[in-house]
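Changelog-adjacent note: as of this version, every example in the card shows the full chain rather than a window. The one below runs 202 residues end to end.
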Amino acid sequence: KLMVTGECFCQDNVPVILDAYSVCGEMEAKYTEVEFEKICCSYNENIICTAQNEIMGGSIGSIVDMWCEVGNVNTHFSNETLTMNGVVKAFILLYDANGNAFFSEKPIDFEYSFNHDGLGDKVYTNPQIEAINCSYTITGENSIEIRVELKITGGIYEIGKMPMVTDIVQSENKPKNKENAAAMVIYYAESGERIWDIARKY
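Full-length structure tokens:
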């Protein structure tokens, strides 16, 4: 049996209303600050971490089995670098030279860095880290070298907020007075002014 997990993300342009006005009558627009997020980049890499393990209690006769589990992982963003720090635990079942069974546990620290383009102030990532391979080499009478291969995948998401129009109330009892409206208005715009703001004003 296989358990397959994944994360889907659809990035699309969504039309929204940022401002509104009426040329017919008084109107009230309700603005709500809406939070949204977008995926900026992704990472998918394998790293190797190694450690030396000293077996207490006697010399090594044979290794029966070894397996690994990934513990808690901390993430940190600094400038244009994402850094992850964590611990992977190696569990070893072995016999000593006299045939006695031993169990050993070895925590191995690891660090992974990923460079990305400059992002906003509010970003996050949810990495998936899996130990895909572990091996060993007996380096002495009671010592072994452990090698663990980790697969690190995930995406970096940026969270933003924007005020949007979520409701409009048009007053039918308060029409705009157009009797004194000019047939043509000549307006000299200044640098940085938007056509929308000028139209809204007049």
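Structural remarks: The CA atoms of residues 63 and 130 lie 23 Å apart.
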